Amino acid sequence: MAVGKSSISLLGNSAWNAAAFLFGAGLNLLILPFVVFRLGIAAFGVAGLVTACVAPALAFSNALALSTTRELAQRLAPEERDDARHFFATALLLAGGIGVVIVMILSLGGPPLARLAFNMGGKASDDLALAFVFGASGWLCQCLSAVFLALFTARQDYRRIASISIVGVIVSTASMVILIPLWPQASTFLGCQALGFATSLLVASVISRQVLGEWLARPALHRVPLGNLTNLGAWQFAAQSGGLIAGQADRYLLGAFLQPQFVGFYTVAQRLEEAMYIGILKVGEILFPFFSVLQKESSDRIADLLFRSSWVLNVLAASALGALIPVAGPLLHLWTGVEVAIEAERVLVVLSIAGMLGCSANVFAFYLLANGRSRSNALISLVTAVFTLATSAVALPYFGWQAAGWSSCIGMIAQIVITMILLRQSFSLAGMWSRVAHFVLLPLGTGIATALALRYLAGEQLFDVAPRWWYVGGSYGLAAGIIFVVVVAVARIGPHGAT
Question: What CA–CA distance (Å, rounded) separates 345 from 268?
């Protein structure tokens, strides 16, 4: 009965997470062509570069949110309320105190550094100061709201988290529709995003006070919670830093070697791939608190859940991301215009493959984090960042725009290798490598091969007719269905096919 309730709870949490993401991603994807048209691809590229410069700050806020969630999830009993309040107060103080310092550094140091690193001048340069202020302020609102959201994440209350997220996205999108036509600048776009994050912070604080008021506390420093948060958060900070650097490497180097419009082309392709990837990540995100409360289960039981969860998410990744590969050109043509489609189609294909490879480690990362093994996550992330940066640094200067995205594939391959090595050290199971091959590598390899086959067999035919939304949407759905069927059919092969 407990297992059944856990399964139902997981499905319900995944549904709320997916619903919030689909709503937010849907609005963001709908508004992006409007933003690109009103701003121009060069100004949109400038906004992408500012976002990439602010992105390293997410290493701190994400690490703090994850470590706070883990500590609060282990202190849900009424008799542990005082300890939980101490952790919340300390996390809120860290978010506010360190967050303000980071905002000042980004606002004052970001514009001159960007002008120097990305060779910016003219009108784009004049808008950098305000763009960095809005970008940094939006991050600060995210950082503070993450501490309040940790209260709900620890209780697996994804319904309220979804509601908060949806309200913020609605405000951000509405403000873009109103303000960007009036002030078509990169700073306006970033300011509208910041307004959405500020709204989410306000709503999160109000709802948490209404629902969990007795678990809240004013910002204060408590020695034991500070030590626990720092111990877990330091390694998680390293993990987050590596991941963020790996994710932004191409943007940094494209900005340094090429004009801002190429960063705009890359950002458009990345937005589409990232929407799918984060959606899959959100579906599996509920496994983090779930694994946190399963630490007393047997190793065999946890390993079985781990591999089966990985297979489900890998099949989802193969279907959702793989289906982008055959329709990449027509989809971009309809979405943002023929110019962007010509430049960004190949990048979208490569990034989709990289996203599929990256999904192989998601479940294992949640497991390691839930068990306090942030050092392992940091190692995975840093190895990925090193390979990604090295590939970008070598390929982009020599091959230019045509090399964009390949560094992500190399980084994800390195991530798979180091994750499998660490996984082998975590479990001493018979047939460990056969499980890895069947539940992890087989669905992704089959999905990539099937998607590429569909692209070369049928992808050209999509250009023979004028693209229409119903035609491209139907082709995407058909491709996803074919990939799903092939992956499931191939999964029946081997020693684990009947399980």
Answer: 10
CB-based contacts of 482-486 (< 8 A; 24+ apart in sequence) = 482/450, 482/454, 483/318, 483/319, 483/322, 483/323, 483/447, 483/450, 483/451, 483/454, 484/315, 484/318, 484/319, 486/446, 486/447, 486/450
Cα 261 to chain centroid distance, Å, stands at 23
Rounded Cα–Cα distance for residues 92 and 229 (Å): 12
Residues 6+ apart with CB under 8 A from 245: 56, 385, 388, 389
Residue 2 has a pLDDT of 43
- Report how far residue 99's alpha carbon sits from residue 49's, in angstroms, rounded to the nearest whole number: 21
Beta carbons of 395 and 341 less than 8 angstroms apart: no
Using DSSP's 3-state secondary structure scheme, residue 231 falls into helix
Amino acid type, 35:
V
- In 371-468, alpha helices (H): 374-399, 406-426, 432-436, 442-458
Q: Which of 156, 211, 152, 149 is nearest to 5 (CA)?
A: 156
pLDDT digits (tens, 9 = 90+) for 188-231: 999 999 999 999 999 999 999 998 888 888 988 888 888 877 77
Query: What is the per-residue pLDDT across 99-146, written as a single tens digit (0 to 9) for each?
Result: 999 999 999 998 898 888 887 766 667 788 899 999 999 999 999 999
